[in-house]
Amino acid sequence: MKRITPWALAGAATLSLGLAALAGPAVAQKSETAIFAGGCFWCVESDFDHVAGVLDTTSGYIGGKAQNPTYYDHEGFREAVRITYDPSKVSYDKLLEVYWHSVDPTDAGGQFCDRGHAYTTAIYATSAAQMKEAKASEAAVKKDLGQVATEIAMAPTFWPAEGYHQDYYKKNPVKYRFYRTGCGRNDRVKSVWGDKAYMGIKDEIG
Description:
Layout: H1 6-23, E1 32-38, H2 41-49, E2 54-62, E3 78-85, H3 92-100, E4 110-111, E5 114-115, E6 121-125, H4 128-145, E7 151-154, E8 158-160, H5 168-171, H6 173-183, H7 185-193
Parallel strand pairs: 6-7
Antiparallel strand pairs: 1-3, 1-6, 2-3, 2-8, 4-5
């Protein structure tokens, strides 16, 4: 066996550092955040994971007054998804378009088979610019549908949901598809939006 001397290791380390210096510092990827409530957060997360330019999605709770809400104790909160995206690849305006066309914004009582405040729709702006764009998009949706029940507000604290809710559609594909189909989500969205249903989402929905 050939023995590796300390001098050889030092030389390799120097070479490695030299190559790293030539490569230059790592460039941090710029990202921005959007938050949408659209009924069951499993489904919203799945939908936005199929949008080019979305880097990460996190299911959670937003809008209530308590601290550290849980799935079994989130009165006053909505289920929502925090979306981290690359603005060089997808704009906030495009995310708004995806959002509106993946929910039923006319329903004030919930979404699909899920009823109650926790499942109502809302757009939570994280900046004044987002608020302006959200309001403009709402006006366009009203022209299409005649009415909109979706709240638009500045984002309060977002609380990530329990780990088993994250990427639920990936972890439990059979149960997830059974739920989504049984709840009538896709059928209702297509009924509301027709050919515009799920605009901007690539691949199969569900």
